[in-house]
Amino acid sequence: MTDLTDRQLHILKAIIEEFIETAEPVASETLDKKYNLGVSPATIRNEMVKLTSSGFLKQPHTSAGRVPTPIALKFYVDKLMKLKELSVTDEVNVKQKIWDYRNEMDHLLREATRTLAKQTKAMSLSATDEGDFYTSGLGNILDMPEFYDIDITKHLLDTLDEYDYWWKIFSAFADPQEDPLRVLVGEDLGGQLLNQCGGVFVKFSSPSHQGAIGVIGPTRLNYPRIIPLVRYMGNLINDLAKSW
C-alpha cells in the first residue's frame, strides 16, 4: 500500500484535502489550477487512473472527478496529513466550558460532548462503562451533503439509541499500552450501516470508570483539526476524572 511514488503521494494528498474541503469529486483540472503540483494535466490524469486502480480513489457514476476511498483516508491519517496545532484560544474555550463541572461526571460529559460538537462542527458522542450515553450536534450533521441521503442519516440516527453498539466499538481499543485515540473510517464503525462515516474517539478513565468521547461525521472529516481537539478533550477529562 505504501509503494506509491512521491508524485502519487503528492497528488493523493491534494485530492483528499480538496475533498475534505468541498465534499465534491475532484477533477484533474481542479488540481492543476489550485495546487502547484508541477506536472501537466495529462500526467495528473494518468496518476489518478493509477491511484484508482490501486484502490485509493473511486469514480462516482455521475462525475468525471474522483473521491478518496476509506483506504485512502486511513492512509492520509496515518502517513500524509499534518496536524493543525491547537490554538491557545481553542484550549481555553474548551477548558472554560467544562471546568465548572469537573467534580460531576454526568454534567462534565454532557458539557464536554456539547463543546466538542460546537468546536468541530460535527456530531459528538460520549459513553461510559456505566451505561451513560450523550450526544450533541445532530444539526451539524444535517448541514453536510453526505447526510442529505436519508438512508445514511437514518442508519446513523438509529445507532444513537444503541449504547451497546457504541460501547462495543469503544471497548475494542481498551489496551492501556496503546494510544487512547483512534480514527475509525467506514467499516471500522461496524460494517455496512456506517460505511459512509468517519470518527475520531479517545478513551479516558477515572479510578472507578472508563469512557470514551469523540466526533462522528462523513468519512471526509477535517482530521488535521479534529484529532488535536479530541485528544485535548480526552487529556482534560482524564486529568479531571482523577477525583471521580
UniProtKB/TrEMBL annotation:
InterPro entries: GAF-like_dom_sf, HrcA, HrcA_C, WH-like_DNA-bd_sf, WH_DNA-bd_sf
Species this protein is from: Candidatus Gottesmanbacteria bacterium RIFCSPHIGHO2_02_FULL_39_14
Function statement: Negative regulator of class I heat shock genes (grpE-dnaK-dnaJ and groELS operons). Prevents heat-shock induction of these operons.
One Pfam family this sequence matches: HrcA
One GO biological process term: negative regulation of DNA-templated transcription
Domain named Heat-inducible transcription repressor HrcA C-terminal: residues: 94-227
Protein name: Heat-inducible transcription repressor HrcA
Keyword Transcription regulation in annotation: yes
